[in-house]
Amino acid sequence: MKLKLHWKIIIGMVLGLIYGIVAAMNGWGHFTAFWVAPFGTIFINLLKLIAIPLVLGSLVTGVASLSDLRKLSRIGGKTIAIYISTTAIAVTIGLVVVNFTKPGKSVPEDMRTKLQETYQQDVAASETSASQVKERGPLQPLVDMIPDNFFGSAASNRNMLQVVFFAIFLGIAIVQLPSENTKVFLGFFEGLNDTIIKMVDNIMLMAPYGVFALIADTINVIAKDNLGQVIELLSALGFYCLVVMFGLMIQTLVTYPSLLKIFSKMSVIDFFKGIAPAQLLAFSTSSSGATLPVTMERCEQNLGVSEEVSSFVLPLGATINMDGTALYQAVAAVFISQALGMSLGIGDQLTIILTAVLASIGTAAVPGAGIIMLVIILEAINVPSAGIALILGVDRILDMMRTVTNITGDSSVAVSVAATEGQLGEVNLDND
Ligand code: ASP
Question: Which domains are delineated in the chain?
């Protein structure tokens, strides 16, 4: 019997975990960094390599196939409205959970001092990045979306929204012209699109090995040849981690299934089976950006979302819709204030909702970006940003989990929008 892709990836993850622990116990850190980790980097690079051509190819063909351009603004409006609502729900879940469980009260005084000393330098780096973000004007994100040079924007995966803008702009012009003028040009994008999807399939053949290397390397980086230190960290911050995970689980297992129930007829089990490989990749890479090609492929080929919807909703979601990050930021902000003995009033909690929704929109789809934006939230509620030292040690683990929620959110919105537009085909789970 042929093993399904997600099982192969899970086996890779488990073996990576076992190897990582054995390596940390035996001090193989150097060997792992030199001989194992590069395969993880190669795998992530391959995924990132095809992200821009994939978005370009599928969005241009998607928009160009529209007969009515008003449909585009309707899909856009719906998508953004659902994205913002689900993020606000995520932050609210985070706040309720953290205010009830109060994990910050359980951090011992001596551990607090130790953590603050250990992570002092990393805090300074995050503060500098956050202050650069804060200096920008309110309309800067809009300006940033419009590139002045296409090749400049296509040269970096961080400029995904610029590529999305260019593709829509180009697609609209194609619709406006008579088809005989654009036939060849459009054919190029259709061919590009099919070819890139084949490349995703080919890259996924490497997924179990790539994931093995990524997990082994993550453990290596966290443990630094000293597993005892991780166990000590987890015993002090374990409760905080559990609270974040609990919140993420509610968002993933209650909010998104409800969304699917409201807007589509898709079975929740089919949905999770369909996107499982993308979730496992999000967990291993901690990057919604790197996972995007697989998220798109699974939504289109396995869940039946039309190319037109998926190629618009998913790249946009990978950049601006980060429910897991927003939930985590809310829990972390309250946790830090609890641990520092500061109490937050209702006004502060409302400020957290607003700033976390905005901060998650501004968070880049790469590992560790969420904690930089946390600095801005802390400043908005007058909690010293140096407090992030308390949680930096376990951030990578939580990053893996919140990235899973982030891409699950994007996929459930893609299914919902497609269903309301009559663009949701049959589920096909045998399509590995
Ligand atoms: N790693 C997250 C993502 O790519 C962002 C973050 O929360 O740090 O979705």
Answer: 5-420 (1.10.3860.10)
